[in-house]
Specification:
This protein is an alpha/beta fold. 43% of the residues are buried. The strands form three sheets. It has a five-stranded parallel sheet with strand order 3-2-6-1-7, with helices on both faces. Strands 8-9-12-10-11 form a five-stranded mixed sheet. It contains eight helices and twelve strands.
C-alpha cells in the first residue's frame, strides 16, 4: 500500500464553482487522483495538481459509466497505488450521494478517510431562488426525499409528506413529476405551490413555477429536463415570480 494512501469525499456543491468550500479546494489541491461525478462542474478539476489523474465516473438516470461497486473498487485500488484519492461528488456526499457506502467499502481495507461536506442542492437551490424552506407560521420543517426508490417506484414517504404542511424537496424525481402531482391532488392539495428547478445555480438554470394542478404542463412549457430539483409547499409562494404570476391571475379574474 502507498504510504500516503487516503480517500477524501468532497462535496462539490450544486454546480456553481463558487459554492464549494475552501476545505474542499484544499483537498483538491493535494489530490493524486480525482474521481468525479456527472453533476460536478468540471471547472473544479483545475484546482487539482497537474499530475493528478482525473477520472470521470459519473452516473445519471439509466446511464452509468461504472457501477457503484466498480467505483468503490477503483477508489481503493487507486488509493493503494497512487496516494490521495479525492472522490468529488455533486452536492453533499451524504445526501443521496452514496458517500456512506463508499466509506464502508474503504474501511474494509483500512484506508484513512475524510469527509468534506458540500452544499446540497436540496437546500441551496431554494435559497438561491428566494424560497425559504422554513417560514414562521407556514412551514415548521422540510423533508428531503428521493424521487424514486431502487425499484423505480415513487418513495412511500411522498405519500406521507402529501398529508403534512412540511416543505418537501424531491431529488432525482423529474420523471415521477406527474405521479407526484397526482398524489398531492388525491390528498386534496391540488392548489399547493411547487417549483421545479433545472441546472440550479448555473447560467443555464430553468425554473417552472405552478401549483400541483398545472405543474406538469408548466414544466413541459418551460422545457425542464434533468437534473432538476422539485420544491413543494406554501413557501414556494414566496418566490417573487410566483407572486407576480398570482397577482396577474387575480387581476384577470377581477
Amino acid at each position: 500500500m502507498n504510504g500516503h494512501s487516503k480517500i477524501t469525499l468532497v462535496g462539490a456543491g450544486p454546480g456553481d464553482t463558487d459554492l464549494i468550500s475552501l476545505k474542499g479546494l484544499k483537498a483538491l489541491a493535494t489530490a493524486d487522483v480525482v474521481l468525479y461525478d456527472a453533476l460536478v462542474n468540471e471547472e473544479l478539476l483545475d484546482y487539482a495538481p497537474e499530475h493528478a489523474l482525473r477520472i470521470f465516473v459519473g452516473k445519471r438516470a439509466r446511464h452509468h459509466t461504472f457501477s457503484q461497486l466498480e467505483i468503490n473498487q477503483m477508489m481503493v485500488e487507486l488509493a493503494q497505488t497512487n496516494g490521495h484519492v479525492v472522490r468529488l461528488k455533486g452536492g453533499d456526499p451524504f445526501v443521496f450521494g452514496r458517500g456512506g457506502e463508499e466509506l464502508d467499502y474503504a474501511a474494509q481495507y483500512n484506508i484513512p478517510t475524510a469527509v468534506v461536506p458540500g452544499i446540497s442542492s436540496a437546500v441551496a437551490l431554494a435559497g438561491l431562488q428566494g424560497v425559504p424552506l422554513t417560514y414562521r407560521g407556514i412551514s415548521e420543517s422540510f423533508w428531503v426525499i428521493t424521487g424514486a426508490t431502487t425499484a423505480g417506484l415513487v418513495s412511500k414517504d411522498i405519500h406521507v409528506a402529501a398529508r403534512t404542511d412540511a416543505t418537501v424537496v424531491v431529488l432525482m424525481g423529474l420523471n415521477k413529476l406527474p405521479e407526484i402531482a397526482r398524489i398531492y391532488q388525491e390528498a386534496g392539495r391540488g392548489g399547493l405551490p411547487i417549483a421545479v428547478i433545472q441546472n440550479g445555480s448555473l447560467p443555464e438554470e430553468k425554473t417552472a413555477l405552478a401549483t400541483m394542478d398545472n405543474i406538469v404542463d408548466e414544466a413541459e412549457a418551460q422545457q425542464i429536463g434533468a437534473p432538476a430539483v422539485i420544491i413543494i409547499g406554501e413557501v414556494v409562494a414566496k418566490h417573487v415570480h410566483f407572486r407576480l404570476k398570482r397577482d396577474q391571475r387575480d387581476a384577470i379574474a377581477v
